[in-house]
């Protein structure tokens, strides 16, 4: 993983169904990855400086974003790193963020929230009192370029972006992502309202984003496939 960037090196990592869905129409955080892929994800988390998710993921799934396995924590500590990577939340309005949820309580881990002026001063104070680093950058939407610049100043060199589809779309649209790692599960979710790997407004055919294939392999005995692209 190259880190010769003014901004952090960003790896988009996700799991999706064969039809490109990262969740079902229920949007309850459907299980997609196999056990082997889950291990791969934890090992990748153990290699990066920070793990990032968007607002919908924070509010609906309350993710831990830790390496979870004691041996991976020990490996990071042996390499003079914190036991877990920093946890980063990108959320336009953090007033509904559960201060008792996993993002805040699971750890130990550094916690960083980028939000906008829609988040009340009271909520900012509450989060800061809990040790969360809060940055308000933007009126309606978080300025992602400024967020990455801030992370660079904070010493964050590699970021693993885990979703959701709207945040992934913005990183790709703005040219702020460097790598895409996707586990494709042998499942079909269907549904026009089910979230996809890349949501947002989309692009015309002439404006489609081009990728360079780095790796593709059958990842386990269940028929799942891992594909790695350079953006």
- The helix content is 25-40%
Task: Indicate the proportion of strand residues.
Answer: 15-25%
Distance between the termini: 13 Å
Question: Which of globular, elongated, flat, extended, rod-shaped describes the shape?
Answer: globular
What name is given to the CATH topology? Dihydrofolate Reductase, subunit A
Determine Rg (CA atoms, Å): 17 Å
**Low-confidence blocks of residues:** none
Largest pleated sheet = 9 strands, mixed
Average pLDDT score = 94
Label the CATH architecture. Answer: 3-Layer(aba) Sandwich
Total number of distinct structural domains: 1
H/E element order: EHEHHEHEHEHEHEEE
| The CATH C-level class name | Alpha Beta
Number of strands: 9
Tell me the CATH superfamily: Dihydrofolate Reductase, subunit A
- The side-by-side strand order for the widest beta sheet comes to 5-4-3-2-6-1-7-9-8
Based on secondary structure, the structural category is alpha/beta
